[in-house]
Please model this.
Amino acid sequence: MSGTDAPLPDEAVLARIDATRSNIARVYDAALRGKDHYEIDRVLVHRLQQMAAEIYQLMWDQRNFLIRVTQFIAMETGITQFLDCGAGLPTAENTHQVAQRIHPDARVIYIDNDPTVLTHGRALLATNHHAHFSAANISTRKKSSTTRSFANTSTSPSR
Model:
C-alpha cells in the first residue's frame, strides 16, 4: 500500500498552496538549502538568519538528530514501524529513507495536513509500498481508516 488517504483531488490541493506566503515546510527546506521552496520562503529564512545567525546550523542539527534517532531505533531496538507526525516533506533524509536503509520492509506513516506537504508526500511515496502519507491533523485524536489499516498493530499491547 502506498500513496495517501487524502480525500482531496490534486486540483483542490494545488488551489490551497499559496506561493505568495511563506510555508513552514518550505521554510525548513530552504533553511536546509533544499530545492522545494519559493523566493518568499528564502526571504523569511534570511530574516530569521538576521535574528539568529545560526539558523542553518540549527536546522541541520535538528535534521541530524532525527536521522540518528531513526537509525538507533531501527538498528538497536528492531522496531520496524515509524510514525512521523508533522512530516514536513520533502526534506533531506526523510524518515522512510533512513529506516528502510536498515530494514527495507520498515513501514513509515507520515501525517501532515499542509497542502504543500501533501503534494510532495504524494509524489515522494508514490512507488514506496512500505511508506504512506495520511492527510490528517495531528492535533485531533481521530485516526484515518487507512492509517489504522496500514499500521501493523498485531504485536502492540491492547489499550
